[in-house]
Design a protein that fits this description.
about 200 residues, alpha+beta, Pnp Oxidase, Chain A, seven-stranded antiparallel sheet, 7 strands, Pyridoxamine 5'-phosphate oxidase family protein, Split_barrel_FMN-bd
Length: about 200
């Protein structure tokens, strides 16, 4: 197999130690892609959450849970996804990382029905004047990800869980999102900024 889009020398070292290089190559050959399939799009846009991995300019990692109503992550092109940034704790760990290091990993998991996982690695940009801002209820910024590698993972260790209901904090049209209780705690309430003007949508 020629140059890999998924594996580097560290991956190869362990693949060789455990005799899995041929399997790893076959998985990349048969499953990895750089364009979002119709099935990928339907899966991504059906989920109310995903996990976002970023790193700062020195490579120090961060992983964040991102949630919203199903469809809050959109497939906007053959190899492009977009998602809104909602009001949070004001730390901007993930998006701040993207401003200094655009490399990103996205992990989409379904734990109800038939478990499923999909990974997307690529590069991201953050915008405060993206046209999607006017359509994404509750958004204060839009993140667009250019996919470089899209690949499913074996879901064997994903537990089967049932989703009761979406978070009451997930932005939706016609509903003013409640403030989380911690923003009213004495330790924080004097420094909580007002919601961004676009947040209420």
């Amino acid at each position: 197999m020629g140059e890999s889009n998924l594996y580097h020398s560290g991956n190869r070292e362990l693949q060789d130690r455990f005799g899995s290089r041929a399997l790893a190559d076959r998985l990349e050959q048969k499953l990895a892609r750089s364009v979002v399939s119709d099935d990928d799009k339907a899966f991504i846009e059906s989920l109310p959450y995903f996990f976002l991995a970023t790193a700062d300019g020195e490579g120090r990692p961060d992983c964040s849970f991102k949630g919203g109503m199903p469809g809050f992550v959109r497939v906007t092109g053959p190899a492009e996804l977009a998602f809104p940034d909602y009001d949070g704790n004001g730390m901007f760990k993930s998006l701040g990382n993207l401003l200094v290091n655009p490399h990103v990993g996205m992990l989409f998991i379904s734990m109800h029905g038939k478990p499923r996982r999909l990974r997307i690695n690529g590069t991201a940009s953050v915008s405060g004047d993206d046209p999607l801002l006017s359509e994404a209820v509750g958004a204060q910024l839009i993140v667009r990800v250019q996919a470089k590698a899209i690949f499913p993972n074996c879901p064997r260790y994903v537990p089967a869980l049932e989703m009761a209901e979406p978070s009451i904090y997930a932005p939706r049209a016609g509903v003013d999102p409640p403030e989380p209780a911690w923003k009213g705690f004495d330790a924080f309430k004097d420094v909580v900024p007002p919601r961004h003007p676009t947040f209420k949508g």
